[in-house]
Amino acid sequence: MHPLGLVLFAVIVLGSWYWWQAQPLDQRRSASWKIILLLVTIGLLALAITGRMHWLGALIALVLPFLKKLLPLLLRFSPLLARWWQNQKRQGPRDKQQHQQHRQRSNNARMTEAEALDILGLKAGASREEIIHAHRQLIQKLHPDRQGSAWLAAQVNEARDRLLKS
């Protein structure tokens, strides 16, 4: 490593140490994570600049810190996954057990029209063409042949069948 790089790294570490010491005791844990993230980011950036890291790895390293903010944005484009994500956030461990028990009991129960409309992201009174179009868009994203989930694809298919029969 270049001596200037070592000096710069030492300055960053010392500055981080003094900043961490200045934080109130109840905020030091959060400050520690910020320092760790900063050091990892600087290390990955240094590897990318010196050509020791592939550009794809550098891109992944760049996206990781923003993933928490990007995930809800990505989920907005998939109504079914967004619904699942919201249910997971709302449910505690006890609620999840009750939900699984309910799913096992009602495995043979039919999907309601409201659930089918929600899965396909449609409003009541949607035409046959709208149903087919919404189904095609979702199934292209969720099909198991495209590394999607078989369960999600089955739910989308069941929603389409339910709406086309009614």
Automatic annotation (TrEMBL):
Ranges annotated as spanning the membrane: 6-22, 31-49
PROSITE patterns: DNAJ_2
Organism: Marinobacterium weihaiense
Cross-referenced SMART domains: DnaJ
Coiled coil, from the record: none
J domain mapped to chain residues: 115-166
CDD domains: DnaJ
InterPro entries named among the record's database cross-references: DnaJ_domain
Keyword Membrane listed: yes
Name of one Pfam family that matches: DnaJ
Record protein name field: DnaJ domain-containing protein
Keywords on record: Membrane, Transmembrane, Transmembrane helix
Superkingdom of source: Bacteria
